[in-house]
Specification:
Order of helices and strands: HHEHHEEHH
Protein name: DNA-binding transcriptional regulator, MarR family
Region (Disordered): 1-30
CATH architecture of the domain at 45-147: Orthogonal Bundle
Shape: elongated
Strand content: 5-15%
Domain HTH marR-type: 33-167
Oligomer: single chain
CATH superfamily of the domain at 45-147: Winged helix-like DNA-binding domain superfamily/Winged helix DNA-binding domain
Keywords: DNA-binding
Number of helices: 6
Strand order of the largest sheet: 1-3-2
Pfam families: MarR_2
Distance between the termini: 45 Å
Length: 173
């Protein structure tokens, strides 16, 4: 695997024979917020690109389409409202409408209204959608596990820290 495909060590790694003037440049020193932010964005972008490419190539699905299918598959009765899918994926209503529209065109979900509650539009998984999400989940989960295995023993610490940041930034309504 070429080096650019692997989540590389932080830039500015100091060769062992050089002592930096700035102690923050030493391995293990607390990173500046700008570097932490850059790493979060960079890792997200790179993993997202890799997984999206694999899903397109192997399953004719975008990452967003896969995530929508997975959320619908995990919902009670394999049925979710557009609002539930939008909330789960962090998409706008227009974004989820477009994503679900593509899934409908592919025959992976159907839109329907439930008897007794005509206000809410639901997306329901089809048999083809169930098969596709199962196959794509294996590709997605194996690739993500492979990439995140690079965290090694730090995985629990990183996950906990990111969960705290996520909780603190969750939109309150």
């Amino acid at each position: 695997m070429p080096p650019e495909d692997v989540l590389a060590a932080p830039s500015g790694t100091v060769p062992p024979d050089e002592v930096p003037a700035d102690p923050a440049a030493l391995s293990g020193a607390a990173p500046r917020p700008a570097e932490t932010w850059l790493r979060i964005v960079q890792v997200h972008d790179r993993i997202t690109h890799r997984v999206d490419s694999a899903l397109h190539r192997d399953h004719d699905l975008s990452l967003t389409g896969f995530e929508a299918l997975r959320r619908i598959a995990e919902a009670p009765g394999e049925r979710a409202t557009m609002g539930e899918v939008a909330e789960a994926l962090g998409l706008s209503r227009a974004g989820v409408t477009s994503t679900v529209g593509r899934l409908v065109e592919q025959g992976l979900v159907v839109r329907e209204r439930r008897p007794g509650d005509r206000r809410l539009l639901h997306a329901r998984l089809t048999d083809a959608g169930r098969d596709r999400v199962r196959a794509a989940a294996a590709t997605h989960d194996e690739l993500v596990a492979h990439l995140l295995a690079l965290l090694g023993d730090d995985a629990a610490v990183v996950t906990d820290a990111l969960a705290r940041v996520s909780a603190a930034t969750r939109v309150r309504r």
